[in-house]
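Please predict the structure of the following assembly.
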Amino acid sequence: MSLTIQDVKRIAHLARIEVTETEAQATLSKLTGILGLIEEMQAVDTTGITPMSHSQDVTQRLRSDVITATNQREAFQKIAPAVEGGLYLVPKVIE
Amino acid sequence: MINQSLKQLAAALATKQISSVELTQLFLDRIKRLNPELNAYITLDEAKTLAQAKLADARIANGEATSVTGIPFAQKDIFCAKGWRTTCGSKMLETFIAPYDAHVITQFDNAGAVNLGKTNMDEFAMGSSNETSYFGKVKNPWDKERVPGGSSGGSAAAMAARLCAAATGTDTGGSIRQPASLCGFTGLKPTYGVVSRYGMIAFASSLDQAGPMAKSAEDCAVMMNVMAGFDERDSTSLQRENEDYSRDLNKPLAGLKIGLPKEYFAEGLSAEVAVVVQEAIAQYRKLGAETVDISLPNTRLSIPVYYVIAPAEASSNLSRYDGVRYGHRAAEYTDLLDMYCKSRAEGFGAEVKRRILIGTYVLSAGYYDAYYLKAQQIRRLIAQDFEAAFNQCDVIMGPSAPGTAFKIGEKADDPVSMYLQDIYTIAVNLAGLPGMSIPAGFANKLPVGLQIIGNYFDEARMLNVAHQYQQATDWHTKMPEGI
């Protein structure tokens, strides 16, 4: 299937990336090329094949439910764009 | 001194021929002289580096040295190192000072190694030429009009120009092996899960794997002994006994069965590179190895599969960059949504955005089965190709990249042609297998790498296979002119 400029804008919105009209146009042609490459997959019959998410047949480890990490709020907030009183500041969400 | 092996450097340090501070200063001086042109390093911090060297000297004096104590390594700027600016090649993290150490950094620190600085890379490791870095292109020391490969391009240029004793890299689709091929040194991508991904900035989590980039297989083995091992902080780290990766280096190769996949010598491979690779294989026959023709029929599909899986995982991983907790935040915005959209639009470069958009698209409602699920099914077919091949041979050999280093700008505007750079390396990541690239000669005065692919956890054997070749040839000792 082929992408439209509307698709590009919709995807960009889902990805939370602002695109200008010019960028959307340029992106459309690049994405169309990449999707053309991906389309080769559709010719393969994959009926009954178990999807592979990990190369090794392993299961997630469990650990005891105990505190292992120490509080490093100050160190972590030192690199934040805006903090106040130990909280991350963002624009008002609820009026 | 700059051409000494890690073993020789450790011996020179142990016998007080040189101190770690002197050795480190020697590399820092080279960096000062050569880095402004090559742009291999993004961040240097001489004070921190020399402080580590001093500690290493004290440790050596106390007789507590390990195999890497006092030796200066370059660290790819994808590894968080506490107190170091860690950018991942992105404007998004331009001012990010890592508040903690990656497992790989901890392993080097605990062993007393010296961190020389953070090397340049494609933005978020997305690229095969180091041209997507926010911090500028990196030049290939063999020909400064050409790319060093990518994404570990800074580490690669630093290796080729001897701006470090050895370096680390990461490999999601070929990012250690392709630059190793283009810059003429030895690089190893271990089996997925052997080196912890903790603190390694995530690109495609089911494919990302860190590994050594060094002057020889012997050096790679020394580094693997430092880097590998179980780490409970990475949920995909494999719980295995520690092994000595140097243990088999000196085994003879008589009887070794080398599989040659016909798909790796087909259309798309440069004729000059093919000649060099065939000569390397002929050398292996002289060393007593046998070759068998094999087939990896789904090789062609590894590119489309990769460009579904890697962007899908990247779009999820990179959703964390929202301008709230760390990273770039736009200066002006109207509301929260606008802040996210503008911060991400400004912080990410074009290739990263493209991959996030592709990933978002293939994971969006209605497309999951057609793309992501389908890709994971074909991923199994690709892994099964290798499984069948390893019934016929011990290791697989072929080219690491379809050509030699290309000109800066040559492929920058054509993502699809850039993606084809990784045609011989990507399948290895999809299958989770170990792969390496070793210098095998030159085509038009540019280095050519031979790729060696092993079965799961066969790194020690691959290092043996590479080391025996490096005992019989001297391609790995060649250096660019004027360096």
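The helical segments of chain A are 5-14, 21-38, 73-77. Chain A touches chain B through 51 residues (CB under 8 Å).
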